[in-house]
Specification:
By secondary structure, the protein is α/β, with parallel strands linked by helices. It contains eleven helices and 19 strands. The protein binds flavin-adenine dinucleotide (FAD).
Amino acid sequence: MLDLAAGAMRHTRHGWWLEEAGPVEPFAPLSADISADVVVIGGGYAGLWTAWQVLQRAPQATVAVLEADVCGHGPSGRNGGFCQTLWGDLPALCERLGDAGALALCRASSASVEAIGDWCREEGVDAWFHRAGTLIASAAPAQDEVGRDAVAQAQRLGEAERLRALAPSEVAARCASPVLRGGVLVADDATVQPARLALGLRRRVAERGALVFEGSRVRRLRVEGPRSVVAETAGGRVRATAAVLAVNAAARGVRPLRARLSVTSSHIVLTEPVPDVLEDVGWTGGEAITDGRTFVHYTRTTPDGRIAFGWGGGQLAWGARLGGRVEVDRHVAAQTREHLLRTFPALAGRRVTHAWGGPIDVSPGHLPQIGSLPDGPVHYAFGFTGNGVGPCHLAGRVLASLALDARDADSRLPLVDRDALRVPPEPLAWAAGTLVRAAWLRKERLEEEGRRPDLATRVICAAPRAVGLHLAR
Ligand SMILES: Cc1cc2nc3c(=O)[nH]c(=O)nc-3n(C[C@H](O)[C@H](O)[C@H](O)COP(=O)(O)OP(=O)(O)OC[C@H]3O[C@@H](n4cnc5c(N)ncnc54)[C@H](O)[C@@H]3O)c2cc1C
């Protein structure tokens, strides 16, 4: 049994990464009316990379960042730290964007992962950037084909080195677990300490001259003309020629965007340092590992030998309500802990020290949505669907291009203004989503137990795809 004695595990909103990265002194809130060239709303990776990119391209520009809380204390500072490319999504991308669009996007996503590593090195930000790839491994016979179509497509398109199929013995050589079978290695992917990256960006963006205001929730965004927009907080206003909305799941509360995403949650548990266990299972290469589920398990190690183990099986939020169980769900954390032990039985008797979670901005098309509102200079990025660490860098490049009105290769990427799929209004979205979630959890549990899901379960699981929604990779 894992040691779950009361008090043994700290279950918080913010989690271990932010604790490890150390405390920060918040920037003062906005308390006056000011002008800027670009106002960025939201200080997670998407907003901070945008601010960084704008200042790279236009060093004289005035950039204001308005953050409701403290930059990097949302999902950007608490995620699994899987800094991934889009190669694992290649088949779905080919289907939706054609070969050329899919290739352009996947290559750009690899360039972003590389650029994050370069940035950390050049800016002296030690975010534990480590490039050992993501191992997508089957955890049940029903998952055995996971990633195989991506390998085949990569071969067909002359990019064979990006994805490599691994036999069960090759997976076991990298990480021996009784549940992991064969898999695929996505070579370009990396891991980071997410909070160190987010807080490092926060620091460097401010040093570059961005005006960063924290405790500054934007309550209203008013378009005054084709090159004039005003963002209003309780303490003041920023008038700018362009605004960038980078508020992640809070986009569900923005009227023109609300039908374009739903919000669910993901939760992580973390062990005490267990370097001996890692040695025993042979997991010393630092690979990020996911299984082949739709409600995915994801796990990685830390330099001091801990295992972080996450599960994307959290509950759906009602509309734009982001607190409560979206952030702290003891039931889901307890289940995640059970799944951890099932994956690594050698952890019996070891302590799980931390648990945390946060919202996931789920795109009905499973792709980030980047674009501009039709009636003014307001640009947005959301819908990273639990995969924003690498892609937010790419989004930052695109958003900077849009905000600076630069018509370049970034603003022409096939992601831009692409996703036209819609989710139904509440209460239908919540009711249907909750039903589908329950069916998928049942299906994946039965498959892992070697049992065939019943017909009703299979029909409900197939329903989203039948209406054009992409739940999974
Ligand atoms: C538990 C968990 C694990 C995850 N694991 C991974 C992973 O391993 N790999 C991966 O790629 N992705 C992962 N993700 C997803 C990833 O964290 C996100 O895709 C990414 O951080 C999104 O960045 P962002 O800048 O869009 O959003 P955020 O980091 O959420 O930043 C948005 C900011 O906007 C602010 N804000 C909201 N409303 C307002 C307002 N009105 N005014 C001002 N500010 C506002 C918020 O306070 C927040 O700081 C995970 C997410 C969670 C929750």
